[in-house]
Amino acid sequence: MISKDKKYEKYMKMCLKLAKKADGKTSPNPLVGCVVLDKTGKIIAKGYHKKCGEYHAERNALLSIDKQKAKGGTLIVNLEPCSHYGKTPPCADLIVEYKLAKVVYGLKDPNPKVAGKGLKILKDAGIEVIGPVLENECKNLNEVFLKNIEQNKCFVALKTATTLDGKIATENGDSKWITSDAAREEVQKIRNRYDAILTSSSTVIKDNPSMTCRMKNGKNPVRVVIDTNLKTDINSKIYTNDRTKIYLAISDKVKDSDLKGIPTHIEIIKCPIYNNSGIDLEYLLSALYKKGINSVLVEAGGKLNGSFLKLGLVDKIYQFIAPKVLGDKTGINAFEGLDTKKINNSKNFKFTEIVDYNPDILVIYK
Ligand code: AOF
Ligand code: ZN
């Protein structure tokens, strides 16, 4: 016999798939999908949260059907229904109003405004509450939201493209193109998922990248350039190809008189210097978080990647690997500046996904 929870896994997977339709559009809110079954078990409604500020998944699903049809039915949703008056009224109240018999949820909402109160409203109304179902999958989907709510910090992902021996370029900086078209297309989708892309002055100077999202219906992310001593040319593509917001992170030692002529879509964040090297990355992340940047994708060279890693600031890595070897006589490593003497002291991750982008692969780890 399949257990009660197992029975709902396929519907929870549907919720996750629905939720993902709004990938990149809900920040700072979570990705949520919802499926409603009538009392015979037939799917009668689906919904998902489309954009921050708009209706939640449960409301979108329920409002698409007749109250009578939902009576005695089951609602499945990947996040505990909310109990608070925010931008929209509480979903838990609407579920009670629609007289559903069961609610299956994927993950308790850690948002203190909800945190168990949604489930309590349902239980108090006599609704059977089942869950958590596929909790890990639900956590993975909303990893950014969870880090924001639970730690009050910005989620940091890092993207790199390497050879089999972990090099991102040859000694003289030649890196075009390590990976193939298919892999580079995927990068566009990854960019679309994050609030901001963060890079360094060396990458701007060396590659002159646009760092836009070239995906259909994708949004151009906010860009963050770490340029400690203001070395980049203000006419570089990243600053001029559109008017999307740019944060320029510089040392707090730079004089205001050196900032004249910087266009208005570029906002300066002055940061303290860490350990006599670059700017204090933790300071920068927290400044960005205060400005509403809930997640960043670091797309930079080995040095900055290494600094983020060394400080334990990286939550997730997307590493594209091309089946090429450069060898030990040349090359820049994906993560530079780490000096680990013992395997026991290495930075440890867990593989979460491996995707084939023939001829390359994408390895995702946390
Ligand atoms: C969503 N979409 O489908 C669900 C959410 O700012 P508000 O009023 O939209 O409330 C956002 C909070 O509602 C969010 O942080 C989460 O705790 C809860 N559930 N949010 O945006 C949804 N179900
Ligand atoms: Zn809600």
What does this protein look like?
The chain is α/β, with parallel strands linked by helices. Helices cover 27% and strands 22% of the residues. The chain has helices spanning 4-7, 9-20, 57-62, 67-70, 91-97, 117-124, 135-141, 143-151, 181-193, 201-207, 237-240, 281-290, 302-310; strands at residues 33-37, 43-48, 74-77, 102-105, 128-130, 155-162, 167-169, 196-200, 222-226, 246-251, 266-271, 295-298, 316-321, 332-333, 351-357, 360-365. A 9-stranded mixed sheet has the order 11-10-9-8-12-6-13-16-15, with helices on both faces. Strands 2-1-3-4-5 form a 5-stranded mixed sheet, with helices on both faces. The protein has a two-stranded antiparallel sheet with strand order 7-14. Strand 9 (222-226), helix 11 (237-240) and strand 10 (246-251) form a beta-alpha-beta unit. Helix 5 packs parallel to helix 6 (117-124). The two termini are 35 Å apart. Bound molecules: ligand AOF and zinc ion (ZN). Residues 56, 58, 81-82, 91 line the site of zinc ion.
Ions, cofactors, ligands: which are bound? Answer: ligand AOF, zinc ion
Spatial strand arrangement across the major sheet: 11-10-9-8-12-6-13-16-15
Query: Uncertain runs with pLDDT below 50, 5 residues or more?
Result: none
Please tell me the overall pLDDT: 92
SSE topology string: HHEEHHEHEHEHHEEHEHEHEEHEHEEEE
Instruction: Give the overall shape, derived from the CA principal axes.
Output: elongated
Coarse structural class: alpha/beta
Tally the beta strands. 16
Rg from C-alpha positions? 23 Å
- Count of DSSP helices? 13
- Which percent bin holds the helix content? 25-40%
Give the N-to-C terminal Cα separation. Answer: 35 Å
Strand fraction: 15-25%
What summary fits the major beta sheet? Answer: 9 strands, mixed
